[in-house]
Specification:
The chain has 3 helices and no strands. The protein has 87 residues and is mostly helical. The chain is flat. The mean pLDDT is 83.
């Protein structure tokens, strides 16, 4: 058993890892807002790329949309009734 499996087995360590992950995400989002807002790099191709934390927002929205679309697709197309093979 590797160290990652041992960490995930312990509920308290799992909570700490989750909080640490959220903290890292918040720090990275803050740094993106800070550096993109105050430092104009001048290499933006589109005007919406100048929005602070645009990459974070786009990544989050894309991830949520992928999850929602895959769940809807699974329910509509992939799932079959229980007696599907008994017919």
């Amino acid at each position: 058993m590797n160290i990652f499996e041992r960490v995930l087995e312990n509920q308290e360590k799992r909570r700490l890892l989750k909080k640490l992950s959220y903290l890292i995400l918040l720090v990275l989002a803050f740094l993106e807002i800070l550096f993109i807002s105050f430092l104009d790099f001048g290499h933006f191709y589109f005007s919406f790329e100048k929005i602070p934390a645009f990459g974070c927002i786009l990544g989050f929205v894309s991830c949520v949309l992928i999850i929602i679309v895959s769940k809807v697709l699974g329910k509509i197309w992939l799932m079959k009734p229980e007696d599907y093979y008994d017919r």
